[in-house]
Amino acid sequence: xxxxxxxxxxxxxxxxxxxxxxxxxxxxxxxxxxxxxxxxxxxxxxxxxxxxxxxxxxxxxxxxxxxxxxxxxxxxxxxxxxxxxxxxxxxxxxxxxxxxxxxxxxxxxxxxxxxxxxxxxxxxxxxxxxxxxxxxxxxxxxxxxxxxxxxxxxxxxxxxxxxxxxxxxxxxxxxxxxxxxxxxxxxxxxxxxxxxxxxxxxxxxxxxxxxxxxxxxxxxxxxxxxxxxxxxxxxxxxxxxxxxxxxxxxxxxxxxxxxxxxxxxxxxxxxxxxxxxxxxxxxxxxxxxxxxxxxxxxxxxxxxxxxxxxxxxxxxxxxxxxxxxxxxxxxxxxxxxxxxxxxxxxxxxxxxxxxxxxxxxxxxxxxxxxxxxxxxxxxxxxxxxxxxxxxxxxxxxxxxxxxxxxxxxxxxxxxxxxxxxxxxxxxxxxx
Length: 431
Fold this sequence. Notes:
A hairpin with a 5-residue loop joins strand 1 and strand 2 (20-24). The protein starts with 11 loop residues before the first strand and ends in a 15-residue tail after the last helix. The chain is built from 23 helices and two strands. It is 66% helix and 2% strand. Among the domains are: 1-130, Serine Threonine Protein Phosphatase 5, Tetratricopeptide repeat; 311-431, no CATH class. Helix 7 packs antiparallel against helix 8 (132-144) and helix 9 (148-158) packs antiparallel against helix 10. It has a two-stranded antiparallel sheet with strand order 1-2. By secondary structure, it is mostly helical.
């Protein structure tokens, strides 16, 4: 049971799902539940109620855990590292077994050991299947590491412990729907996403699943209708607004409407020139696809390449590296292409998670993109075709990783039906 040593202050021993908690007051718990609901529903504004919870109960362990989780789920290594002092502060507080597993999982992420973080959160969910924050985080880590089977099966395993009477159930259903979609179970994914929306029509992550289902089942017209009809639910005050517009742009590209895709890029995807890595990923993937369809991207790639330049030396995530390379090649910024290749050539020798994925597919995939950009389709095809079947472990979704398949397809088309164009731009290959 949670407690304050030597204090007569009122305490709360369990959250709204029956999970034991340490160090909370009723007022702090109420604020925490509000913050958690916003976080798990991909809505903005969780920081303010979480700050109230911590002011009211400075030794409320799960409030500190949530504060750290809001950082370590990022794709930006500098943002992840900023959680280290938060973990150090919370580590000295009284905590129960489940809370200690949360803290240990955060420590694993800070050590760049996502496998251990996933294992610890998996063990936590076997102890407490209603811990929605643990489910949210391990679901995110399964996505980052490209583990589609766990993305689906972890949520399925805890569903028997849940019901529609519990707060957060619609978010759990949305997570389940996304795992089903990533495993190719599109009809079932749509059913579960619609069930989540029946409980909470403004569930942004369930609308996101619907976008993926329409994308993967080649229904762009239906996708455009859905996203436009529900834009106030997923596109206003959510953390997925930019990504939702990326999906909408992809539907227009599927219909050959590059002008509409470019308008969405300017108005929504790159509005404000965000430096958030997730936003940079969406922008790079979209511009590249527009160029594949021979759309005129004008000066946009140069601006995006400049924004990506700060991440050349991250040596953190192959998925990020690929999108940085997309931006640099789209801009024909060969200096930064070579800089990134040099970093990856060095990283592949390191005994790190990034070193492993760089050796397995990251460096080859990035070199393939560079070769494609220079017009050397034979090299691009050779490198892309040789990527191992485990290439999905770079992370991201099927829809995002499709950029590699689309590039391979376009390179093959250019070889089969050559048009008059400049000779390939030769660059020294950096080993």
